[in-house]
Amino acid sequence: MPGNPVVEAVLDSITVPPGAFVVDFACGAGQLGLALAARRPDVSVLGVDHAPGLVERARANAPDNARFEVMSIEDLALEDASADVAVSLFGVLQVGEPGKTVRETARILRPGGVLGLAAYVDMRANPLWSATETVLARHLPPDSLPNPVVQPSLAGPDARERLLHEAGFTSVRTRWFDFPLPLPSFEAAWGLAASPGMFPVLNDNAEVREELREAIVSYEGPGGGS
C-alpha cells in the first residue's frame, strides 16, 4: 500500500542519525511520526500536539519507539538542545505564531540538528480549495471567506527562509512539489472542505453541496482531473 507522498517527501529530505531522538511538531494523529518510527526502529519519536483527541489517536497506533504527548508547540516541556531531529507535517510555519514555533524548534535541537517540514503557501493551488472557494463566493460576502494565503505574514518572497535563518538554521533548502490527494467519495471531499483548516463556514446547505459536487466532478476517476 503506497504511503502518503508528503510524509515520504519530508522523511526522504532529511538524514536521521542512528539512535536519534526525533520530535514531531503538531503531530496530529501521528501520521509523520508513526511513519518514521516504522521506518526506523532504532530511533525514538516524540509527537506533540495541542489537541488531546488527536494525541489519543496517535497513541493508539504507537509502537514501542514512539510516544505522543499534549503540548503547545510554542512552549515545549523539553530541555534545550535535547533533540537530534525535528519534523512537521503542515504544523511548523502554519500553526500558531510562526516566529515562536520556529524559535522553539531551534531551541530544542542540538547543534547540527535537522528540521524537515512540509507547509502550504497558497491554498488556491489545492483544487478542492479553489472549487469550494468559487462555490462559496456565490453565497457569502467576500470578507467571510478564509484567506487562501497560509500565514499572510510570511507571504513575501523567501519570507519562510528568512524566518528560519533568523531562528538559527544555517542551511535552508526549499522544494516545491505537487501531490495527489485521493478521496473515496464526495462525502469525504465535503468533510475535508468543511474542516477547520479549510472552510469551517460550510454548512449542510443542499444548494452549496450540489454546486460543489458539480464543481469537482471532473476530478472523479483513477487519474483525477487537471
UniProtKB/TrEMBL annotation:
Q: Coiled-coil ranges per the record? A: none
Against Pfam families, the record matches this protein to: Methyltransf_25
Query: Which keywords, in A-to-Z order, does the entry hold?
Result: Methyltransferase, Transferase
Superkingdom is: Bacteria
- UniProt xrefs under CDD domains: AdoMet_MTases
Which InterPro entries does the annotation name?
Methyltransf_25, SAM-dependent_MTases_sf
- Domain Methyltransferase span(s) in chain numbering: 22-113
PANTHER family reported for this sequence: TRANS-ACONITATE 2-METHYLTRANSFERASE, TRANS-ACONITATE 2-METHYLTRANSFERASE-RELATED
Q: What is this protein called?
A: Methyltransferase domain-containing protein
Q: Which organism is it from?
A: Amycolatopsis dongchuanensis
